Amino acid sequence: MTNKLSISIVIPVFNEEESLNRLYNELTRVLEQFVSWEIIFVDDGSDDNSYPVLKKLVDEDSRVVAIRFYKNFGKAEALSEGFKHTRGNIIITMDADLQDDPVEIPNLVNKIQEGWDLVSGWKRSRKDPLSKRIPSRIFNFVTRKFTGINIHDFNCGLKAYKRKVIDSLHIYGGLHRYIPAMAGQKGFSVTEIEVHHRPRKFGQTKYGGNRLVHGFFDLLTML
Fold first, then answer.
1. pLDDT-based confidence at 171, cuts 50/70/90?
2. pTM, whole model, 2 decimals?
3. In what order do the strands lie in the sheet with 90-93?
4. C-alpha 179, offset from chain centre
5. Tell me: the pLDDT tens digits for 16-38?
6. Is 24 within 8 Å of 206 (Cβ atoms)?
7. Would residue 146 be called left, alpha or beta, if left means φ above 0 and alpha means ψ between -120 and 50 degrees?
8. At CA 117, angle to CA 190 and CA 99, rounded to 5?
């Protein structure tokens, strides 16, 4: 890896206390190959012990930042706030539930170095129940057709961005689902790579059936 790279990892957190120490340990093992890196956790109003766990990580490692919301604002707001605190020239986003595998980070970075502005993960072999996979397939099919961005998994949490992409985005509500489409609208190059997806071990999914309906209204907003 070139020594000019600086990597920022942005991770929204909502009630993931059991996952956070393991996620940190996995991330640091992967990130040690880079000269400069930071991990930015955004606690989106957790009501478990997530923030005390994050605070301990911050106290022990100066490369870790923890931002805390006083209530749950949602993933878009958490990402947006995390982006404001990044210093890297490549920004990686991922979820905190351990389903996104940190070993994919170098693969995302390599794809960015090929010249792409945004690289989205594709959970081709998705380890989620059918009740999540079917609505997701519908959502992704419709989004591809309406936006013209030909990727399979718009809502995958695991993505890599050049700095200029996040500096140009204004995301709120449910628009985090459409970041690749929004970037494409602004003329940035967008691609995807297959990424390893893992079963959830701790906590509960934050997915609800009403997300599909809300997602289509957000699509109209974005368009």
1. confident
2. 0.85
3. 64-69, 36-44, 6-13, 90-93, 159-162, 118-122, 190-194
4. 10
5. 999 999 999 999 999 999 989 99
6. no
7. alpha
8. 70
Q: H/E element holding 219?
A: helix 210-222
Q: What is the pLDDT of residue 129?
A: 59
pLDDT in tens, 36-73: 999 999 999 999 999 999 999 999 999 999 999 999 99
Task: Say what the pLDDT of residue 208 is.
Answer: 47
Structural tokens at position 152: 């399979």
Measured at the CA of 90, the angle between CA 83 and CA 146, to 5 degrees, comes to 70
> How far is CA 117 from each of CA 68, 122, 135, 165, rounded to the nearest angstrom?
29, 16, 28, 7
Residues 102, 22 contacting (CB under 8 angstroms): no
User: Tokens 């490692």 belong to which residue?
Assistant: 61
Q: In the structure encoding, which two tokens stand for residue 142, read together? A: 């419709």
- Find out whether 11 and 95 touch, Cβ atoms under 8 Å: yes
* C-alpha to C-alpha distances, 151 to 91, 178, 188, 191, nearest whole angstrom: 20, 11, 14, 7
- Residues facing residue 44 across a β-bridge: 69
